[in-house]
Amino acid sequence: MGKQNRKGALIFSEYKRGDGIREAIGKSREDILFEIRESKLKGRGGAGFPTATKWMIVAAANSNEKYIICNADEGEPGTFKDRVLLLEYPELVFDGMTIAGYTLGAQKGIVYLRGEYEYIKKSLDDYLEAMRKDNLLGNNILGKKGFNFDIIIRMGSGAYVCGEETALIESLEGNRGEARNRPPYPVSTGFMGKPTIVNNVETLASIPHIVLKGGEWFKKHGTDKSTGSKLFSVSGDCKQPGVYELPWGTKISELLELVGAKNTKAVQIGGASGICIPKSQFNRILAYEDAATGGSIMIFNENRNMLNILKNFMEFFVDESCGQCTPCRIGNRKLLQGIEMIEKGAYTFSYVSQLKELGRTMQAASKCGLGQSSPNSFISILENFKEEIFCGNDRYINGYGEHNGK
Amino acid sequence: MVMENTMESKDKLRAPVSQKPLTIEKPKDLTAIGGTVTVEINEKKVNIPLGTTILEACKQHGISIPTLCHHEDLCVAGVCRICVVEVEGMRTLQASCAYPITAPIKIKTSTPMVRKARRNIIDLLLSEHYGECYSCFKNGKCELQSLAREYGVDNHTFGHINKPRYEVDKSSYSVIRDMNKCVLCKRCIRTCIDLQEVGVLEAVDRGEKTHISTFLNKPLADVICINCGQCINRCPTAALRANDPSDEIWAAIDDPTKHVVIQTAPSPRAAIGEEFGLGAGHSMTRELNTALRRIGFDKVFDTNFTADLTIIEEGTELIIRLYKAIVKKQDVALPQFTSCSPGWVKFLEHYYPEYIDNLSTAKSPQQMFGTLIKTFYAHKAGIKPEDIVSVAVMPCSAKKFECNRPEMNGSGCKDVDYGLTTREMARMIKEAGINLPEMPKSDFDNPFGEASGAGLIFGATGGVMEAAIRSVVEFILGKKTEDIFEKANIIPLRGFEGIKYMEIPIGNQVGPVPDILKHLVPNWNWLKGAVLKIAVAHGTANAKKIMDDIKADGKFSECHFIEFMACPGGCLGGGGQPIPTTPEIRMKRAQAIYAEDESLEIRKSHDNPHVQKIYEEFLTEGPCGHLSHRLLHTHYTKRGRYIA
User: Fold this and answer.
1) What's the pLDDT score for residue A6?
2) B313 is catalytic
3) How far apart are CA B346 and CA B637, in angstroms?
């Protein structure tokens, strides 16, 4: 799917480089913040924190050094929308960052680019250079006196955890990629201890449109609690995988039809750290208030083995846990071992329920979003597909057997 | 969460853009005002200062929260997650050690979710913790073990690792690392990097492969570890321990052909009671003498004797350096640095090798004693030095390395055979069936006998300097130290402030040169009007500050004499001392040491009659003479930070 074929009401709507910045510098910072608050834009990385709240804290912070960080560490399995935005719509992302710089009084923007996206870096650098030539970056941008802002690209090194904002900041500072304790939050103590905004690529790409067309316009799309539209990275068993812009509130079944998915058994919403939705729940809507997602939609048809899928996810987390906190470091390994026991038929139901309990501990007690969300697929797949997993014809069930964790 | 709520309420009151402009409100920095906040802990309202952590607030109000990675001396990690609590309105549990309170929150410390989480976390840690408690030297003192007991975690729900994953690193004379016992609390990393600023240990790899490693996973003996052992003092499990020579010592005691002597340093005596259930701050000097004889040591000597000797040798060396610099206008290295702390010495050799000439060449008290035992004492007692086994009870793990330095053989054989920590000594005493606090008191053995209070206070930070100044002012001014400092207590040099600085003006009244120094300086006139500048630092992080200042030609480069101790608090906080260690415990040990000093008759090194006697009988050329240079002084190695 190329840029010419992309259709969308908001993000993929027409936009000319610099228009958002031009509009922004004619307004007061308060007015821009007001529009963003009006729009009810929430973070597009998955957590869904109200963008305006974050911005207002940084705007109010009393510091002559502030940072705008674009989180382009798109590491969630099954997400690739940020890559599309950066490759095809860099004007939206960079204009969004520049508007943030103007609104929040920051002079520096940093794009933390996923290690595997190194091949994009050159084109982004060239693009930034062109922006500098046109005075869309640099000093006294577009003649606005005192508005100085520039953007640099920094590469990640392939750690999934560095998509977590505080681990990302640690990585930027040259430290081991590990989540920080919160509070304090990055909005008050972020990069180099200064007030910092960390926004997802897509969140920033929404900003120029909101500045141009207003919060009311943005809010018309989507649902009451999930305003605007969302880019979905659709992959798996369907005819037309790719990136789609759809309004929040779209039913899963509608999306499946749009992408030509047949005989679908399950949809994994929100990547490996998301939840797995069975056929019986395909009428649920994609929205923060129902099936929340950072954009990853993985479609599995009747031929897929759910236990294998789950195993694949858990192997990913065992490898990608940063290893600092106990629940995540050891817990993920125990969940994976549990799956291996189920595979072999060497498990007890009481142990499986103990593992689910462990999953809930991990959700509650892990230090960062990684460990807090890694048990999601374990719990939802074992819950929603228990018949397939525990009563499959070809599997020997030893309800009283020993588990080999001992 | 609180932020979201304000957002909602503002939205309800919202007016159209044109009518109600939004203003950016400056946030109030509440902590800066120093106010208090009322929070609810388990439905009880309490008032606490802003910025207090949940853990601290609960502790202040009698609610105990289990911890593992938390340590009073160290920065916050928040990684073990044992201390989680519920905070109303938060989706997840919060680590109480890492949560500073800035708003009126409601906390619950013992809900079903909290208890379940704690149990699960302990169970997870146990599943990866190799070995069984009964065969572990930390049995009964392990923090993980007590947590498991407290929370009734006793059946390895998530399995138990049955073979070791890592090779035990026994390369170092001082510290043994067994990563199979590690729970990744990172206390050792925070000790090494933040507390001591040495930086030998770091976490490597990720996920379940995460482990604590040295640079390139080299053995500890091959990296720039200074052997301070502070990591051992803070390790909650048996992952870090000192290299214990007690089996060899037992063998020597049991060997009738060996004459086994032991010297005891002041800090172990002030702390060993803690190993026998006494509170911190009980000095056990004379009880220990009896216990050691009952174990089978042939002679018990007081390290303070050579501490007194160190003062004479090191003080003389300082006077020689000053004389050369001021009168002879020679290029000598100043300020002079103390060299009693082997951790500090190795730190300097690695980090500031260009300042090696500033280190006093005087050996540490342990090593001076080692040499004297196998020369002076051996001759006097008519025993061959080869037949003497010399043991030193030290608060220190670095002393084990020090006695194994190849240059430490002034007597012709290894001067000190074994360095034993306070903890290991306590275990030997227990193994011999002795309850130390019940022992009758007895004195030290001759010919070294009792020492002065000046030697005793070597155990606390500032002590070496205070001891030196007590002698130096009498040497130079010809007046009693008591006439200048009340009761000869030099208060500005005491206490746990990281860096202490003091100036002592000499004035125009100088005394006669004492006999012991007559061969070195003709008079003191060259010091008239001078101001003696001295400084004291404890903990290598503070030492680093001074060294960097000296490098930058700052205030400390004008000092004449600086005392450095590698460990926080000085020797009394050494890496061989009883565990746990906290600022409060260290303070009590210091109080015990200073109280013992005040109770002594002789409180200045040069007044020690045994010291006077050894210069009359044995070291007849006086301090810094040829013999004392051969026996009591040493040299150092420029190691640098990159070692092959």
Assistant:
1) 85
2) no
3) 9
CA dist list (Å): A99 to A48, B88, B459: 21, 36, 61
Interface check B127 vs A, CB under 8 A: yes
Burial (Cβ within 10 Å: 0-12, 13-18, ≥19) of residue A29: middle
Q: Is the pTM of this model over 0.90?
A: yes
Q: Which residues contact B104 (CB under 8 A, 6 or more apart)?
A: B37, B38, B39, B40
Is A365–B84 a contact, with Cβ atoms under 8 angstroms apart?
yes
CA-to-CA distance for B351 and A169, rounded, in angstroms?
30
Per-residue pLDDT tens digits for B453-494 = 999 999 999 999 999 999 999 999 999 999 999 999 999 999
* For range B571-577, the mean pLDDT: 97
Q: What is the DSSP string of B346-387?
A: HHHHHH-GGGGGGB--BPPHHHHHHHHIIIIIHHHHT--GGG
Q: How many CB atoms lie within 10 A of CB A78?
A: 21
> Binning pLDDT at 50, 70 and 90, where does residue B434 land?
very high
**Whole-number Cα distances in Å, B589 to A314, B393, B462:** 51, 16, 14
* Apex A355 CA angle, A353 and A359, nearest 5: 115
Cα-Cα-Cα-Cα dihedral of A67, A71, A72, A76, to 10°?
170
Q: In what order do the strands lie in the sheet with A196-200?
A: A150-155, A108-113, A67-72, A196-200
Q: What is the count of residue pairs from A and B with beta carbons less than 8 Å apart? A: 153
Measured between beta carbons, the chain B residues lying within 8 angstroms of A57 are: 3, 27
DSSP A304: -
Check CB contact of B16 with chain A, cutoff 8 Å.
no
Interface of B with A in 148-177 (CB under 8 A): 156-160
Q: Which helix (H) or strand (E) holds A109?
A: strand A108-113
B:74-93 residues touching chain A, CB 8 A cutoff: 76-82, 84, 92-93
Instruction: Name the residue of chain B whose CA is nearest to A362's CA.
Output: B117
B360 is catalytic: yes
Please state, in angstroms and rounded to a whole number, the distance separating the CA atoms of residues A316 and B353. Answer: 47
Contact check, Cβ <8 Å, B3/A30: no
* C-alpha–C-alpha distance, residues B267 and B303, integer Å: 10
Taking residue B1's Cβ as centre, other Cβ atoms within 10 Å add up to 10
**Angstrom distances, CA of residue B294 to CA of B270, B297, B596:** 20, 7, 24
Q: Give the Cα separation of B633 and B625 in Å (integer).
A: 10
Q: Residue A264 and residue A280: Cα distance in Å, rounded? A: 11
